[in-house]
Amino acid sequence: MSSTRLDQQEEPLLAEDDFDIDDENDASAMSLVDHLEELRWRLFKSIIAILVGGVIAFIFREQLMYYLQAPLPKEANALYNHGQGGKLVVTGLAEGFTVFLKVSFVAGTILALPVILYQTWAFIAPGLYEHEKKYAVPFIFIGIVLFLLGISLGYIVLRYPIEWLVTFGAGSFTELVTADSYFGFVSFFMLAFGLVFELPLVLTFLAKVGVVSGEMLKQKRAAAHVGMWIAATFLTPGADIYSPIILGVAMSCLYELTILFIHFFVKEEQEA
What is the residue extent of each domain of the chain? Predict the structure, then answer.
């Protein structure tokens, strides 16, 4: 009798629990699949834009190489004094082609930046309120301007670490810089500056979702500036005094710009 009653009481409870769990799993699975599918298409469109930009950059590869090679001093190429001009050296059969591809890919990423920013915004827009979606155009425009300012500053600063790195071992070594090492260094250096300049957008977005706030940034202002200046000395590869100073000033200005962005954009939304 007792065992029969226990079975009768347990069976409906177990069946009901299993039914609820299945429903919850199905709903969450559908939601996750939808998000992953949308993310896949956003990434696909961004990759297509990068490929198109890379093709355009590859067409103008000679002009692009000339522009990027300008900060390199003549002392970096031992063949310059032997009638070979200022051309860089390649050490492999396919190295010249792969260098063109690498530089074209980086330049294509820069050209595709408007599409990448738009796809990023379009992915996060469904989770925003209607009054927040009006910031799509400012988000894309400010992101492009900041990134271009970053790579421009990186190009200006570039000659200081290059000159230091070239002259540092000139007394002990014969300088013969390869195209792959030089353009790889230049591409990474300029992209790093461009990404650092996106800091205001990233922090403003974190403020929108409640991770940080303007008051928090103001309270930690002194420690943040010290940390950024210390980081600037490690992010610049040369030991010259100009690169860390320029990058440190830029990062401090970006930090203060972030506080202004949060004050105007996030505070207006909260009041609305």
Answer: 16-197
Side-chain-side CA neighbours of 3 within 13 Å: the count stands at: 0
pLDDT (tens digit, 9 = 90+) per residue, 94-144?
A: 888 999 999 999 899 989 999 998 888 888 777 666 666 677 778 888 888
Q: Cα–Cα distance between 56 and 243 in angstroms, integer?
A: 31
Give the predicted TM-score (pTM) of the model. 0.72
Instruction: Name residue, tokens 């792959």.
Output: 180
Which DSSP state fits 178? B
Residue 96 is encoded by which pair of tokens? 């010249």
**8-state DSSP, 88:** P
Q: What does residue 89 show for φ and ψ, rounded to 5 degrees? A: -100, 140
Q: Using an 8 Å Cβ cutoff, are 162 and 72 in contact?
A: yes
CA angle 211, 213, 217 (to 5 degrees): 115
Q: What are the structure tokens assigned to 255, written together?
A: 């930090």
Residue type present at position 98: T
Q: Which amino acid is at 150?
A: G
d(CA 8, CA 260): 65
Phi and psi, residue 144, nearest 5°: -65, -45
